[in-house]
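Weekly modeling sync, notes
Attendees: S.R. (lead), two postdocs, one rotation student

Agenda item 3: backlog of single-chain predictions. S.R. asked that every request posted to the team notebook include the full sequence so nobody has to chase files. The rotation student volunteered to paste the first one in as an example of the format we agreed on. Action items at the bottom.

Example entry:
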Amino acid sequence: MRSGRLERRGKFLRNGEGGEILLNNEDRESLQGFIVLGARLNQQGLPGRVGKMRLCHGLARWQEQGAEGYVILTGGRHPGMPVSEAQGMAVYALRWAEEEGGAELRDILGQRLILEEASLNTAASARHTLPLVQTLNLSAVGLVSDALHIHRAYYIFGRHFSPHGISLHPLVAPGVLRSYWQQRGYLRLGKMALREGGAWAKALVEGWGRRWRR
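Predicted structure, as returned to the notebook:
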C-alpha cells in the first residue's frame, strides 16, 4: 500500500517518497512488456543498489499484471565485470520470482525474459531494444528506471519508439534517492547528479542535431 501525499506533475503522479507512478491504472494494465534499464553490477555479477531497485519495481509491476507481459532486461558487459548487466539482472530476477511464487512463477518469468546485452549506455539501449519490441509486436511498454534517470531515458527512448507508434510509459522505482540520502551517500549522489546532467546535455545536443539535419 502506498503512503504519502500524491501530487500531479505532468504525466506523472508523485507519491511523496521519491517515486512516480502512472496517472491511471488503465495505462498500467494495458502494458504488454516492461523494459528494465540496467545499472552497475557488484563484484559478484548481481545488480547493485540502483539496479536492484529498478528490477524489483519492474518485476512487481509485471506480477501485478498477471505475469503475462514480457520483461526486457537491457545492459551490456562493462570492463572488469564477469557478466553483462542483463545477465546479472536475469539471475536476480529468477531468484526473486522463486521467492515470490515458487518454481511455477520462476518458470513463467524464465519464458518471458528477454535479454539485450549489447548496450553500454541509455541511447544504445533504446536503439537495441526497439527491434526486440517490434519483433514481439508490442504496442505499449513500460520503461523502468529511477527518479534521477527516468526523464532522460524517457526522452531518448521516445525519440526511437514514437515514430513507430509504440506507446512508452515511464515507471519509476521509488526510494533510490532517499536511500542514498538516508545513508549519507552524499558524494555518490552528487556524482550521479553531475553525470546525469552531462548525459542530459549530450542527449539534447544529439536531438537538436537530428532536427537540423532533417
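Discussion: group reviewed the output briefly. The CA atoms of residues 44 and 82 lie 8 Å apart.
Action items: rotation student to repeat for the remaining queue; S.R. to check formatting next week.
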